[in-house]
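Form 7-S
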Amino acid sequence: MRLRLDSAVCILLLAQLDLVFGNTEILNFESILSTAFPELNISRFTINAQSTAQLLSLELAPHQPAWSDICDSMNGCSHEIFVKLDLGKNHKGEFVKEHEKPMYSLRISSTPSPPSQFTIAVLTPRQVYELIETRNGSVPIIQDTQDLSQTRTMYARIRARNSGVQVPKEMTWHLFPPLVAEPSNQALFHLVLDPLLFGFVPKSVVPVIWAILVAGALGVWSLRWIKPKLENAALSVSKEMKSKR
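Output:
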């Protein structure tokens, strides 16, 4: 009984850690120059290559509708959020040159409760403008784009729905109110913009790669000192065992 209680407490504590994620969605995309639409005011959140993470929340849509039917006909949908991606500078803080096309990875990591699914799309300002106008029931009228400036700003369109996983109805959430949150239809998630070095290596894993390389180099270097000692110890044990026979 003690073991079961200790295990239950550990599970409850782990469930509250933001580092324990239950779902991950990843989209790799290319930063491109596109026509700027200064009148766009659709996002309250912005991330860039230097400030790469944002904690957000979304109300989950029901599981049954297809993604194409979620937030397809109205603006201000509670199951959808737009995040502005300011990609004019790279992760070093340098302005991206016109001919450059940096690669990025956009990653969503959500908590396991409530069970949720996400979909991500990266849109240019023009695509966002056309989407908004279509939802408003009007035909998008694009003015002469020659008079508009070029930008690397893009927008992440994120939608969320219930994953359809059934949560037990008899869960005693009220027994541990400080530890276990009440069931909610609001999903918390981290949105992370990760520059892809050389077009395919996420910048966030570079420290891990260096740690592995350093550990490997130290292992190879120390092996020439450790191996003779191990061989001598093995020979000593072997001789001792033979002498006892």
